[in-house]
Design brief:
With 285 residues, the protein is mainly α. Helices cover 75% and strands 0% of the residues. The protein has helices at residues 2-23, 29-51, 61-84, 87-94, 99-107, 114-130, 142-163, 169-196, 212-234, 238-245, 248-259, 266-284. It is globular and about 55 Å long. The two termini are 13 Å apart.
Length: 285
Amino acid sequence: MTAFFALTTSLLWGLADFGGGLLTRRTPALTVVVVSQAIAATVLGAIVVATGGWSEAGPLLWFAFAAGLVGPVALLSFYKALALGPMGVVSPLATLSVAVPVGVGLVLGERPGMLQVAGIAVAVTGVVLAGGPQLRGAPVQRRTILLTLVAALGFGTVFALITEASTTVTGLFLALFVQRLTNVAVGGAALAVSVRRGGRAVPEGGFPWASLPALAFVGLADVAANGTYAVAAQHGPVTVAAVLASLYPVVTALAARGFLSERLRAIQAAGAGLALLGTLLLATG
């Protein structure tokens, strides 16, 4: 069950990142974040009302609130790093996020077996290579590296926090709703500050209403991924769930290959193969 839900997480996050990347080519990143998360919050609000999730309110929701504060900061740092530096450096470096939940799992006493340790090492190496690491070229700005590390720390922290935010299914819906409301509030405040400083909230041609379905998909896929990751981490070792969920860059690369006809570099193809091998080792360990 852990492997299934964690791999589902990587699929959803990979597709959400692919869709978000396409949308930010035409629409400001802050607007993409705010609108997509607002749609997700609306849907989750309806689910919470329908399932009576309010009865699960309690101290654990502070974890969801904290995840909602950290998430937008991590996402915006990641987008800004991608704008400043080569994706071949930023994308693989961002996968260091897996170190946070894995570290939490080890601190809490988890001790993966030798086969699983080998699977973790192989899978993480595969994910880094699948991102197409840039081994040669101009030096990368320190600001780009710093922003990427902030994003990685933020993503990993969200991984860890959302796992602790609930113990039941209805509680998980409520936790995700609180997280999304906080995302919208933080992102909306940042967008307002950006507009006051002369930034744009929408493209020159106005709000891209034709992109609304894509924005909805990005928001809903992201929130579904948070949910499936929480289930995976609650039903199995966090160390295994976190590594399998971190395979999403492979999904993004394959989506670019399938939908945009982008050719995978040899190092990316090798990385995808290693990620699959690491997944098999983790699943059988």
